[in-house]
Amino acid sequence: MTMSKFKEEIVAEAVTNSVSFGEACTKQTEVANDVVTQKGVLKPHLWKVDRPSREELQKLLWEVPTTSIAKQFGVSDKAVEKWSKLYGLNKPPRGYWAKLKSMSAAQSDCWKESG
Known about the structure:
By secondary structure, the protein is mainly α. The chain is built from six helices and three strands, in the order ααβββαααα. It starts with a helix and ends with a helix.
């Protein structure tokens, strides 16, 4: 099946199910060993590193910093950023983890003073 023919089928599916093209693509429709996302066709069998699934990456992005995810998978934080972009996922904004850390430190200081 050619890529253009495959994209036509995704567009047809999106129209019949009343969803956007991006939503239809991010369902990660599998054809043979290929996975289709909003950015195009992914070829997992050619990846050098095992990547997390879309759902697993979404969960990890909001639980731990990108650098921790990168260490876990043996890649750079930029690679994790590219994965999230490829899957169409949002990352926490810059400074998110520092803000959480400072908020938890302030809360623990309050408990120490009152205790």
